[in-house]
Each structure stands twice: as C-alpha cells, then as structure tokens.
Design a protein that fits this description.
F1FO ATP Synthase, 2 domains, 139 residues, mainly alpha
Length: 139
C-alpha cells in the first residue's frame, strides 16, 4: 500500500503530461489542455492528502503511527511553501524574460540590468526551497 501511495500520483502526473502533449500535437485547444493539467494536479493533490489519511485511519501503517497532526501540518506547510514560491517565480520569470530579451535586442548594454530582474524572479523559488527545508527539518 505504501509503495502504491508513492508511485500512483507521480505516475498519474507523468501520464497526464503525455496525454496533454498528444492532445496539443493533434490540434487540441490550449485552453482545454491547461484545464486538463489543472484537473490532474487537483487529483494528485487530493490523492496525496487522502491516501495518508486512509493509512493512518487503518492503523497498520508504520508511518501513520509516528506522525501526528502537528507534523502533518508542518509537512503541508512545507509543500505549500515550495509550491507557491515556485508558482510565483514562474509568473515573475514569465513576464520578465520576454521584456529582458526585448530590451537586450534594442540595446545590448541592457543585458546586465535585465539579468538582475530575471535573477530576482528566480530567487523567489530559492527562498521557497530554503523555507521548505527548514520546515521539513522540524518533522
């Protein structure tokens, strides 16, 4: 059961990515492909929440016996820290990189300034990873 808990969500995400790539290749609308990916992410998130709860409720899981509610909330906080910081970093980089490319193509002297703004967007993800590791150390 514990192996299934670890493998199923990751396998589901990989299969959903391949399904979306095939859908785009054969003329699927990007709006629906993104919606499929969001739904897949929701299913995986729910499975990561539901499977450990079921294992803990059965009482036969060695992991369920040693974790309490507090440690579970720390794990959820760690996951949220890294997930939301990476989401914010992706949004920041998605808007700053095209502007940096445009500025550099007009004036090559702007490369260093543009690179700073791109690096600031990436730093958000690094801060999230550091906070996630700090919280994971409390488990």
């Amino acid at each position: 059961m514990e192996v299934f808990i670890a493998i199923f969500p990751a396998l589901f995400l990989v299969l959903s990515v391949f399904a979306c790539l095939i859908a785009v290749k054969y003329g699927g609308k990007p709006k629906y492909v993104i919606l499929k990916q969001v739904c897949s992410f929701a299913v995986v998130s729910l499975s990561y929440l539901i499977f450990p709860i079921m294992a803990f409720a059965q009482g036969n899981s060695s992991a369920g016996a040693e974790f309490g509610v507090g440690k579970g909330l720390v794990a959820i906080g760690s996951a949220l820290a890294i997930g939301l910081c990476c989401l914010g970093s992706g949004i920041a980089v998605a808007s700053s990189v095209p502007a940096a490319i445009g500025a550099t193509s007009e004036d090559p002297k702007m490369f260093a300034k543009s690179l700073i703004f791109v690096a600031l967007g990436e730093a958000i993800a690094l801060y999230g990873i550091v906070i996630s590791f700090v919280l994971a150390g409390k488990i």
